[in-house]
Every structure is written in structure tokens, then in C-alpha cells.
Design the sequence.
């Protein structure tokens, strides 16, 4: 039987070893999915968080602010504003000169001043002709309200940390107390029907108006004088326990009855 030569066995063994090394080197290293996720996924996640943070920071302050009462030659003027995302959405007076000719002057001037605020978004509004004192007092109180609103926004009073439990509770309460408008039942009076509509937010009357009131003849003048006062009193008092306007007893009684009906529907 023929024996294998020793040198030949050594050569064959060496060739096999070299072939094995070549095969190992030709294999590509595998990619670790966890490593790839950690390396490539971190940047998009951080970017998304930054975008979310930027969007949250873009939201402005929301709330109400009441300016200081400013005394004028004919009486005090005090303005309250409502702002949403740093934009004034409503302006109104909680105090204004009244009695005698002042009723007519403020009845004409205040709605114009309120409208001008929404356009200008500042206290740089024009004085209403024939109502200089009221206009000046209005602008000073308005500026005071704006300053208070800005201070609250800077302090973060209207933008609490959304991650805190207190903030979550507040958000739930704000949603539950969303502004709503309610119209009271029609109250029949000797001179015609009276019906009141109110807007309620956070348990407070923010607006009151008469959608029906006695009209025709002298009723136009009486209602025109009485209703704005009743509206103002309803907002200030927050309930139907308001004084009757002198010379408009029937209209006042009907107004209060319809107002109470609206409050009952709104939950008190």
C-alpha cells in the first residue's frame, strides 16, 4: 500500500488554512439594529421635541385683566379686556360716567372706544368727539389693563407647566368652564316683551344684552336709556339682584326676570 509523502500533507494543510482566512475576511460585518437606532434615531427624536417645544412656546397668554378705575370730571371710568394668545378679543367698561347727559355721552362713546381697541390692539386710540374726559379716562384704564395682562403673561400665570398635576386639573376645569351663551325666557311687561341673553365664562357674566325690549313711541327712549345701564349692572353684579333704572320700572322688572331665567339655565 502506497504511503502519503509528509511534505505533501503539510502543503495541503497550509492551503486549507489560507482558504479559511480568505473566506473570513470576505464576510461583511453585520449591522446591529439597536446601534443603528441609537445612532440614527436620536437626531430625529430631538428635532421633533424641539419643534413641539417651539410650537408650545408660540402660544401666548389668555385671560382677562381689569384696569385701574380712573376718576374723571364726570365720574370714574374702568376698563376690562379679554385676550386670547396675546390678542385683545374684547373690551368693555365696568364703570363709566352716568346720570343726566353723561348717559347719552357714554352711550355713544364707549361702544366706539371698545371697537377701536380691537382694531388698534393698544391704548393708542382716538378720542371720541364730544366725550374727551370719558375717552381720556378710558385710555388710561385700558393701558393699566394691558400692563396687568402683560405682567401676568411674563410671570407665566396663564401658561402653567402642562406636565404638572395642578396644570392638568386646571386645564380640565377650563374646558368645563368654557364660555357659553344663554338666552332667558321672554318676560312680558305692560309696554312689551323683554328678553335677555348673557355670556358666561368661569362662572361669571362677561356680557349681557337685551334681544327684546319695549319699542315704539316713548318706549324707544326709555329702553334706550335703561337697557345699557341694566346690561352694565348685570355684568358688574354677576346676578339678577340689580337696581331698577329710574323711570323704567316695568322694563327693569322684565329685564331682571329674564336675566334670572338665563342664569338658571346657565347653572346659576
Sequence:
Amino acid at each position: 500500500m502506497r504511503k502519503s509523502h509528509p511534505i505533501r500533507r503539510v502543503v495541503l494543510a497550509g492551503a486549507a488554512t489560507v482558504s479559511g482566512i480568505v473566506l473570513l475576511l470576505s464576510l461583511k460585518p453585520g449591522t446591529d439594529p439597536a446601534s443603528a437606532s441609537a445612532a440614527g434615531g436620536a437626531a430625529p427624536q430631538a428635532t421633533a421635541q424641539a419643534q413641539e417645544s417651539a410650537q408650545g412656546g408660540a402660544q401666548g397668554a389668555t385671560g382677562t385683566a381689569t384696569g385701574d378705575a380712573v376718576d374723571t370730571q364726570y365720574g370714574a371710568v374702568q376698563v376690562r379686556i379679554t385676550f386670547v394668545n396675546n390678542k385683545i378679543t374684547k373690551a368693555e367698561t365696568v364703570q363709566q360716567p352716568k346720570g343726566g347727559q353723561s348717559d347719552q355721552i357714554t352711550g355713544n362713546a364707549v361702544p366706539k372706544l371698545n371697537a377701536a381697541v380691537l382694531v388698534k390692539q393698544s391704548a393708542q386710540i382716538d378720542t371720541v368727539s364730544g366725550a374727551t374726559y370719558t375717552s381720556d379716562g378710558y385710555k388710561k384704564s385700558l393701558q393699566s389693563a394691558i400692563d396687568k395682562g402683560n405682567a401676568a403673561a411674563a410671570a407665566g400665570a396663564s401658561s402653567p407647566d402642562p406636565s404638572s398635576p395642578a396644570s392638568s386639573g386646571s386645564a380640565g376645569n377650563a374646558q368645563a368652564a368654557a364660555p357659553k351663551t344663554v338666552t332667558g325666557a321672554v318676560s312680558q311687561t305692560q309696554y312689551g316683551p323683554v328678553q335677555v341673553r348673557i355670556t358666561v365664562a368661569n362662572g361669571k357674566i362677561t356680557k349681557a344684552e337685551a334681544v327684546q325690549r319695549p319699542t315704539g313711541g316713548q318706549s324707544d327712549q326709555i329702553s334706550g336709556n335703561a337697557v345699557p345701564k341694566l346690561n352694565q349692572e348685570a355684568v358688574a353684579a354677576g346676578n339678577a339682584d340689580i337696581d331698577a333704572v329710574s323711570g323704567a320700572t316695568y322694563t327693569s322688572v322684565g329685564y331682571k326676570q329674564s336675566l334670572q331665567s338665563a342664569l338658571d339655565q346657565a347653572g346659576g
About this structure: The longest strand covers residues 75-84.
